[in-house]
Each structure stands twice: as structure tokens, then as C-alpha cells.
């Protein structure tokens, strides 16, 4: 539904809670807490709960929260990227085709980081160096992809002349 100024509601409260909750969990665990301590694990469990919520919401949530709204095939992604490089990419109210796949990649990486971290707490894997290194590699990969995601949001905001980061705060975008 459009407001008086033409803005439309795009990101519902569940999507915004998921997004900013994961930002908080990642910043806390990657930069503020020592790995392996109890609080580090609890923050990781909170991130995993958010992933589970978002997975379910991707099937039953509002229009732009659903995977069907933003997961497109390779040709749609390639077309979008070529058009973007040429300066003629179409604006999308929800995620564009490339951003949709970045969201999936981020969710898979987060789930893998959380799962590998949880496995390190089990007796069967306690002290397993390879698993610990895998957890660290996945966390570093997550940081890189999250950095690319944030950078792309800034570039796309400039390209579209619309503050996409603020839209994830308010839930609204230009109609």
C-alpha cells in the first residue's frame, strides 16, 4: 500500500528483525567476543534461530519476504548484471535477481558457520582441528560476502538514488 509520499511497504517486521538481528549477532561474534566462550555460542544459537525463522518466513511470509519473489534463475541474474554494468538495470521493489542469490548465499554461509560451531561443542568433534579451521574459514567467508553485500547496497543506493539501507530500517521504499 502506497503512502502519501508514494512510498510502499516492502520489508515487513520479521524481515527487518532477521536482518538487523543477524547484523548484531555477526558483529558481536566476529569482532567483540572471544571464540569458544559460552556467550559466543549463545549468540551463535540466536543467529541459528533467526536463520530458522527466516527460512520458514521465506515460504509463508509477506510478498517480498518469500523466496519465490526474489530467487531467480541464472539467466535473470546474468541479464540484471549485464544491464547494471551498462547503466540500464531495472529497479526492483524487492531484491533484484543478483541480491536474491546473495541473500541465499549469506543464509547458507550463516547456517554452515553455526552448524560447524555447534559441532565443535560435541564430544565426537571436541578438539577437532580441521573442524575448527573450517568454522573459521566459513566465518571469514561470511565476513567477505557480508562486506560485498553492504558495499553493493551502497552502490545500488547511489545508482537508484534511493537509500536502500534506510529502507531496511523503515520497511519502506519508493513506490
Automatic annotation (TrEMBL):
Q: Where are the transmembrane segments?
A: 17-35, 42-60, 98-118, 138-158
Biological process per Gene Ontology, one example term: respiratory electron transport chain
Which Gene3D superfamilies did the record assign? Answer: Transmembrane di-heme cytochromes, Chain C (1.20.950.20)
Enumerate the UniProt keywords alphabetically.
Cell membrane, Membrane, Plasmid, Transmembrane, Transmembrane helix
Kindly list the places in or outside the cell where this protein is found, as annotated in its UniProt entry. Cell membrane
Annotated Pfam families: Ni_hydr_CYTB
Query: Ranges for the Cytochrome b561 bacterial/Ni-hydrogenase domain?
Result: 10-171
How does the protein associate with the membrane?
Multi-pass membrane protein
Q: Name a GO CC annotation attached to this entry.
A: plasma membrane
- What does the record give under GO molecular function? electron transfer activity; heme binding
Please indicate which superkingdom the organism of origin belongs to: Bacteria
- What is the protein name for this chain? Cytochrome b
The major lineage groups are: Bacteria, Pseudomonadati, Pseudomonadota, Alphaproteobacteria, Hyphomicrobiales
Amino acid at each position: 500500500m502506497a503512502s502519501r509520499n508514494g512510498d510502499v511497504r516492502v520489508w515487513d517486521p520479521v524481515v527487518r528483525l532477521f536482518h538487523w538481528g543477524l547484523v548484531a549477532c555477526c558483529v558481536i561474534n566476529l569482532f567483540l567476543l572471544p571464540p569458544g566462550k559460552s556467550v559466543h555460542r549463545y549468540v551463535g544459537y540466536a543467529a541459528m534461530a533467526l536463520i530458522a525463522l527466516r527460512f520458514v518466513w521465506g515460504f509463508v511470509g509477506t510478498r517480498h519476504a518469500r523466496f519465490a519473489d526474489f530467487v531467480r534463475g541464472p539467466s535473470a541474474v546474468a541479464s540484471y548484471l549485464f544491464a547494471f554494468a551498462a547503466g540500464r538495470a531495472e529497479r526492483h521493489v524487492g531484491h533484484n535477481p543478483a541480491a536474491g542469490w546473495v541473500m541465499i548465499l549469506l543464509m547458507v554461509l550463516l547456517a554452515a558457520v553455526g552448524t560447524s560451531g555447534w559441532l565443535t561443542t560435541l564430544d565426537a568433534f571436541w578438539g577437532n582441528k580441521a573442524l575448527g579451521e573450517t568454522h573459521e574459514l566459513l566465518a571469514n567467508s561470511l565476513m567477505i560476502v557480508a562486506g560485498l553485500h553492504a558495499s553493493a547496497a551502497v552502490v545500488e543506493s547511489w545508482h537508484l538514488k534511493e537509500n536502500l539501507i534506510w529502507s531496511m530500517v523503515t520497511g519502506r521504499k519508493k513506490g
